[in-house]
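(Fe-S)-binding protein
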Amino acid sequence: MTPPRPRVALFVTCLVDLYRPSVGFAALKLLEEAGCEVVVPDTQTCCGQPAYNSGDRATATDLARAVVDAFYPYDYTVAPSGSCAGQIAHHYPALFADDPHYRGKAEALGAKTHELTSFLFDVLGLKSVSARYDGIATYHDSCSGLRELGVKAQPRALLASVDGLAVREMAEPEICCGFGGTFCVKYPDISTRMVGDKAKDVAATGADTLLAGDLGCLLNMAGKLKRDGSSVKVRHVAEVLAGVTGDVAPIGEAR
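Predicted structure tokens:
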């Protein structure tokens, strides 16, 4: 008897929805090709991280409650973002610590929430993809994915299976790019210095493409590279793994 396909709820994320829908479609393609039944709950909202990081626990809790209601029924929740996945997996239970109705649901949802490449590699056991990308890429480790979810080896392992692609490491791939959600708004001078250092690190690799798993970081780094006149193309890792780079221009570039 064939086992049932896992029912995966795709958490699209606000930035993907507003700025880069191709990342959501790439994630959907990867999950379906890996054998999942994918649902995109139409009642999903922001995960609440901006409010949470700003100390607005009331708004963060209201948003988290809506996410729990929308995503709890599914086998897994997957996001093409370590930042949003980390918020759901690690911070929702604390938000509902004094709520007997939602605490158990939040803990259960957190336990079955994953960043995209980690889910494909660690949970589904996917070791290779059928994609081609001709070029040399370097990979930036986004803070939340790396430090909250342990996402580092998984995207690199999957990228190693992409035909035509070589990955060349930065000297300091784990250093923050300076985005940090509201951090770049609260501390623009520090953020600018940090992304400037990151741009230099990218340039030193000689790579023609910069990849990462969080769109916020990618938008920040793409903006700096563009202002510097760099020719480095910036993409979300899901777009390369899904083989859809021919359908959409690099981040910050016109078609």
